[in-house]
Write a structure and sequence with these properties.
This protein has 930 residues and is mainly beta. The protein is built from 8 helices and 48 strands. The protein has a 22-stranded antiparallel barrel. The chain has a 5-stranded mixed β-sheet with strand order 1-6-7-4-5. It is globular and about 85 Å long.
Length: 930
Amino acid sequence: MRTSHSFQFALTAGASALAMTLALAGAAHAQTAPSTDAQEETQVDEVVVTGFRASLQSAVSAKRRESGVVDVIKAEDIADFPDLNLAESLQRVPGVTISRANGEGRQISVRGLGSEYTRVRVNGMEAIATTGGTVNSGGTNRSRGFDFNMFASELFNSLTVRKSASADVEEGSLGATVDLQTARPFDYREPTLVMGAQVSYNDLAQDAKPRFTLLASDTWMDGKFGALISAAYEQRHILEEGANITRWTFGGANGGFNTASTLAGYTTAQINNTNTATALYHPRIPAYVQYDHNTERLGLTGSFQFRPDDQTTISLDVLYSDVKSTRDEAQLQAIGFSRAGSGKPQTIIRSGTVDGRNIVAGVFDAVDVRTQSAHDELQTQFQQYTLTATRNWTDRFRTGFVGGYSRSEFSNPVSTIVTFDRANTNGFSYDFTSRMPKFDFGFDLTNPANWSMINGTSEVRIRPNAVTNTFTTAKGYFEFDANENVTLKGGLDYRRFSFDSEGQYRTTETVVQTLTATELAAVSRVFSGFGQNLGLPTGAPTSWLAPDLDKFIATYNIYSNTGIYALTGLNNSSARGQYVTVDEKDLGAYAQADFRFDAFGMPWRGDAGVRYVLTEQYSDGFAATGGTIQLVRARRDYDMWLPSANLAVDLTDDVVVRLSAAQTIARPSISVLTPGGDVGIQGANRSFSSGNPNIMPTKSDNVDFSLEWYPDADSLFALGVFYKKINTFVQTLRQDIPFNQLGLPTSLLTGTTALPTDLFVVTQPVNSPGGTLQGFEINAQKRLDFLPGWMSNFGVQANYTFVDSSIEYLTSTTAGAPTINETLVGLSKNAANFTLYYETEKFSVRGSAAYRQGYLTQVPGNDGNSVHGTNETLNFDAQASYNITENLKVSVEGINLTDEFNDQYVDASNRLNVYSHTGRQFFAGIRYTF
């Protein structure tokens, strides 16, 4: 695993970004600075701060007022958030890192705790938004994690990250509770209309796409009624290219190599060693791949507020988002290295290079190779309705209500893969001595005569699937000022969450037409242009023959749902495994006291309370019962008491100390609560995943301490320290087990290429003993107003987070089995962000860098690999804007300016698993405010 980025590259890129910011700032000063006489004649009565600096000031003020550990991001202006994606904005918060999909932020991790441990509330109501993705980016989200790429950032005016718990905030988070707030009409003092237009360009896709935003707000009846609507629409076109290895495996796996194999210095027995601790390793499915993503995203909000008197406010917030996308894939792979039977046992190693225990280069005969094309059509529709009402009955007694409903519907109605194959290819070679590997297939890849489609070997996969999440929420609460120093709070809340997943498959995906050379040529195309800015080694292929899906579909009518192309949800084991329904009901009650007092000459404030929660869960799934597969139902319930306390003291007028302690829980991924299982057979991959309806939530005892200095309205210097004792941890236990030892009927393999003796990757969620997590955050934000003249308009925002953990992972559920101590999955020990900005009344420019150290994604790994992980990333972004008039602004923005690669690995020895990039993204826009 890489642990440090190239210093020379980082220094060069950082210096370039700094130089660009300085140059643009200097140019802006030269153009906008008034004459000395004009300055002397001007009388300044009031300074109104706007733009990025204003958003920072507002965030600092909000953080300072809180009792707990909270970070806030505010919109720069009306319908103008600092970043194009909410996840990209959140990564500026100390302790927050992001994972990306399709070139943009998708999910977040807070203090090393992934999206499963982070609750997201939209307009005060918990929500889950589900999108699809490639296997390399997490696939379809079937967890509780929130996909931030569902929404355009312009729809929101503030983000709040609550890192410490309080009794009045619903349970469910170990990392943080993130509040997303859309705009409301009472936020504005006068009628408002804002329109914006942008064009985006990706230098890898070499395509330009539009983006539009709109916000309109007004009030009537002397300010008693208000309405606001906003809209954001965009199109995106992204290419993702690179190498995809699908892990490394040991020489003796899948029957081992042909006994005629030769490797200098090694015997046949050593080549085909099955002991994963001493065996030689090779790539399972070395492949080149391109994904072509096209996305259309529409977001709408509506907010209606009514204030019948000064003591009552009623708000109705509506949010709708529709994300449609297509994904086309072209992949060229040497699949034979992972095939048992007629695959790997026929492959002969002619020569090779060994580095440690890895065969990093080699020449092979009798290798099965494959070219495949895939097409997916995906859509997510999200809708949410939230009613909020507050009433001040007296000067001391207040009540409130929040009720709402949200629904996220993900559908993947078209998910199709067609493969052509070539058996026993001689002269295939690979070379992993550079990070971007070279594959040489040894024949003309573009000639249809060199490929075949054979019944029983080639595949046509048709796998439509869908996931639906719904939330229903109701909460009532009161606040009573017992005296000037104590406010008593209490409330009840009810949440109901439902999850439904389903899918369809063909009964047997390897039953296909055997095509003649002429027939195959008629339904194929030459895929070309692969490898732009990828760093492909000389001689690596940039074009190859691929199935032409449009022609294949039209010729063989594969969507007819008849004959060999009939789909089923019950007669295919993998399709049955897609069927999961979960219904969860959470009833909560809390009591809390907020207090404020003076002691030792200092003002103190805080809160202390306790939350009680009762959870009921019902789940359905297909499972093996008495040698047959049946639909089974599971039910269970549990309750918990969760105390919490927060204390803050102003040591001086500008120094604040905070201390927080709480017990928190995070419920397990909703899809793992099924009592059913899923037998998966895809190409050479074999898997069996089962749920666990009795899995308990992850529970943690938490302590937070922070010291914060606020020297002025623009500035913040803070140090935060945190510790978590994770009492139990939900781990996905992975083991390699032959199918005939799983206790499943062998009839599940009928019509597949799998054998009862094949090793299956078996996964099941289990409760592990847990462990500890600790770390610290450093946060600095300062306008550089001590610099002379125009340079006083510079400012910096920087933070650094260190997190470490020691988690005990199980290797088996057998008593006395060894365990593994590793860091928490998804935890980056070191993360940092730095932003340098320059801002005047007319001009604004900023450059940002975000660093995330490598992190683990799976412990233990498959195929004897110790772990799976993702290597470090260092992303650079920049933005500039100019106010032509008070109402008209133009802007440019660049994202991922250094085209950072997605570099994934298996094993502690850093065996390459994925190496891909998505290019740089540029935006130019105009915005008008009426």
